Amino acid sequence: MKLPENLIQKLENRKQNNSLRKLPSFNNLVDFSSNDYIGFSKSEFIFKQAHHYLIENEIIQNGATGSRLISGNHSLYQIAEAFITEFHDAESALIFNSGYDANAGFFSAVPQRNDVILYDELSHASIRDGIVMSNAKSYKFNHNDFEDLERLILKFPDTNIYIVTETVFSMDGDSPNLEELVKLSEKYNCYLVVDEAHTLGVFGDKGEGLTQYLQLHNRIFARIMTFGKGLGCHGAVVLGSPELTEYLVNFARSFIYTTGLSPHSVATILVAYQHLEIEKETINELRQNIVFFNQQKNLLGLKPMFVRSKSAIQSAIIPGNENVKRIAQQLQDKGFDVKAILSPTVPEGQERLRFCIHSYNSQEEISQILGLLRDFVF
Question: Model's pTM, two decimal places?
Fold first, then answer.
């Protein structure tokens, strides 16, 4: 059956704007595009250890068989959640099927009709989608601008206010001043919620994330960690009080009305966390590569192009969908997998190449790709 005409027109508009998305093919290019920051998705040890754990504990089951509230709450969930709770020095942990499910479930369920959500304007789509589903009123504040945030807070006295941000923003790679943000939330008795998707495995002595590394985690209402990036597997967890966990089990629709993760998926999460606790060398290699990347872009005169970032995400602003796609293709033709981020994913004029740094990138590869970028741009 033919697609409705109005949907065909939307696709045509994307084509005309040079912003039509297509699924990429698998390639063997040098990886500067994935979120596999410390290489856990490629870890043979984690792969074999997860399988061994299932066999050793006689867990021979391919699927969860149902939602966690019906038949899918297999024993591995309790073991993994207990380990994650201790690892993150949290009171309680609740695993969701994905980062999207965690954000959609949390924000659609927790803030209530008479509450207010104040969120950073660059918050991830999953956060924004959850907010859209909420009955609370919501307002965005300027990116990492806490004067603007405080201005909004003062508009809503005697109101439950949820402040929402990310510890590392997925498109810019930058971070807010978390110490200042925590103080501001405490000053006005707000509920601070942070998405730590891009800090797990990257920040901290054992990759525990930025708020924990800064010893601010016990002053935050909820932390949302996702496993598809630094942990190299799939799923997410919401960290908070036992009462928050109980509430989400009862009211988060993305948790309630979906089949649970398979035992193999949860075993992989558990083993990856166990490995993260002892894997200091790989995390250190990532940090060294981030420092080297920043040094090289400065030496090559590329610093003005890049958003300031000390994370594994480094974004070079190259305005125009056609322009940034052309340079991305040139880099790919030279053997480097780096992706163009187009509008409307980012605002028009803010199109960019998004470089993801990994522990397994060599310094030679970093020098080569930045040298090519300079040649193609200038």
Answer: 0.94
